[in-house]
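Checklist before submission:
- one chain only
- standard amino acids only
- sequence pasted in full

Submission:
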Amino acid sequence: MDDGRLTVRDVLELELVAPWGAEVAACPALLDRPVRWLHVAEAADVAVMLTGGEMVLTTGLLLAGDEQAQTAYVESMREAGAAAVVLGLGRAFSTTPEAMRRAARRCGVPLVVLHRPASFARLTEEVHARLLHGRYAALDLSDRLGGSLSALNLSGVPLQRLLDEIAGYAGCPAVVVNLAHRVLASAGDPAALGDLLRDWERVSRQVSELQGNGPVTLGPDGWITARLEARGRQWGHLVLFGHQGGEEIGRVLGRRAAEALAVHRLLGDREIGRQRGWEDQAAEALLSDLASGTVHPEQLLPRLRAAGLPTERRTLVPVVLRRSSGDGAVCGAARRALEEESLAGLVARIGPDGTVAVLVSVPPERNADTEVDRLAVRLQERAPGAVIGAGFGCLVLDEVRRSFLEAVHVADAAVAGPPSGPVARLRDVRLRGLVRLLRDEPELQAFIGRELGPLLRHTELLDVLRTYLRTGRNKSLAAQEQHVSRPALYRRLQSIEALLGIDLADLEQLTSLYVALLAHDAQRGP
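Returned file contents:
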């Protein structure tokens, strides 16, 4: 009743009605009919003034003694769509007129008789105040929710932030699904969401059965579905699970939320340079949570399954692609490569530097390393120049975060020293990979300072040392790459030895210097 939706039962349960001795004389099973308005009338032809949903109050003064008129009166209420007829006894009838009772039962119109004197004016005032208050509340909610969601859209928030706001207003879990009923985003209480997503296959079937032809469909237990569409094209649904408000509030929530989500989608489609749809954002959120370790794997497993990624008896392999240009083409190439290799996987950007991640799901009858190699070959064909790093195969979700970190570091190291094959693994990047794995450790940073300290202020000498080591200490080749004569190179190597106080002919000192240089370069990126 708080949201302005009243039923016949609600009206009869009002404290005001209790002293009037209300008795349901016909159709007690139909008391949940909604009441749109109260109408007090003594005219026999009052039905012509009704539009449906009214609860009609009468004393029956013009019906007394005429059973035919009583029957016709009830029949006219049915044709007008009245919610119920309330007959006040005392003035025209001392007991319930049987003709009206029989007609009400036959016509399916609830008939309520009041055995004690009742103030129709007070009841009308009370009910209308509640109805108007509820409609005002719905309008107020529409205004507040619409304003809040519009402000978020204008500020360019991601889909998840918008859905969090919707779930907050609805007070229940909210889920956005595509037309295949794969979950693109979810918000609300984590425990309630976990229960829904854990059994998503069954829940999605119920959602499919609930969806109607209208823009918003109200179902049992507070489930609400709203179609997501714009420009005549539908791309998914918003589903609210367990909304505790009434129908009018539910329709407002569904309608306003769907409008905001449609605007968000259109704004995303038009945003230059991003071209990331909701599927991309959903995959990005999942992979980011997996890689960061901020969400427990048990909570992520239902989300992965609801997103359509097979996990049962599968080997999960993180693959990371680095490219100097934007990630849009690489993301598209990765999706097409997965399709061509008949592999399931999630693809998303995981950083602002053009890095793209793929979580590959390999079925048990196929070798994970072989499938990743084949996928990498496809990726190299579709995205020339991309450097690809792979983590180890994971049989349980708990291992995926560590494998993701390995894939990121391997791809990072492979940028500086590309592998001979299509994909780099930890064994391929050797010392360079180890140094990059440890590059954020304070001990390694201190080691760089001890080994290279004075040389760090002489970038041209540092570059000479880098070239000298990269060419395997071939002085002729190093001089050629530095575009200097051999005597000039000798002088610069001597300057390096003097600054650092070392002998470049000493293998142990040279090895230590090489590790420090690798670590220094790792500090610079990518």
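Reviewer check: DSSP finds 19 helices and 16 strands in the chain.
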